[in-house]
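Researcher: I need the complex structure. Ligand is flavin mononucleotide. Inputs:
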Amino acid sequence: MRVLLAYFSRTGENYCNGGRRDLRIGNTEVLADLIAERLNCAVHRIAATEAYSDDYDDTVARNVREQDDDARPGIANPLDSVDGYDTILLASPIWNLRPPMIMQTFATSYDFTGKTVHPVTTYAMSGLGTTPQDYAKSCRGARIGDGLAVRGEEVRSAGAAAVEAWLRRRASSTEAAPGCADGELVPLFSVVDRLPAATALRPGCRVSPRGPSGGRWRCRCGRLALEMAGRAA
Ligand SMILES: Cc1cc2nc3c(=O)[nH]c(=O)nc-3n(C[C@H](O)[C@H](O)[C@H](O)COP(=O)(O)O)c2cc1C
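Model: Output:
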């Protein structure tokens, strides 16, 4: 499984149902944990070199400045590369309709050629905002896949169901399958991380049911998707 979940989340005072609430764990971190519990993925928490304030209004003001300046706020713990991953989930809150500018720092730091980026957000009202378009511009070479947006106020109560529904949608969708060579399939959103030889290398292969934990596979060239109901027999 070559999936990376990279996320940014802020603790402290935040917007909540029209008021304010102190969050010890940020909403996006809660969502990231729910995803990581259900998906075999590497997880990277993006930390700011200059930490964002716990104060909501200060953070709003800093974000406006960073957006106006098209800033690239520093990342304290940058990854060397994203070369080892085929699929990258970029998770963050929505700040003034966009992902925080530190996500642009991450997005513009790597070559995403041949990779699929899925935007993931928590928000108050804006859903994904302009996140898919922002990543389409900033993640060089990436294909932008389906996004997941969960309202911050609901992430603790309804986040797990939202994640599971999203993963199921991902697992059951299919792409054009114009006959790639056998042996080139790689897992995409699957808990089955090793594809047994021969049995599962062609659409229509026989698989033994294993609940909802099957998966979806695509060719390294990105062309072939193979839907599996469970682990290959
Ligand atoms: C600086 C700032 C700007 C925000 N702007 C928006 C916005 O434009 N639209 C929206 O729906 N929510 C907005 N929110 C709410 C957050 O997106 C939401 O509370 C999110 O779940 C916070 O995630 P976190 O706890 O991981 O930081 C904003 C919050 C902050 C702190």
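Model: Summary of the prediction. The CA atoms of residues 77 and 173 lie 35 Å apart.
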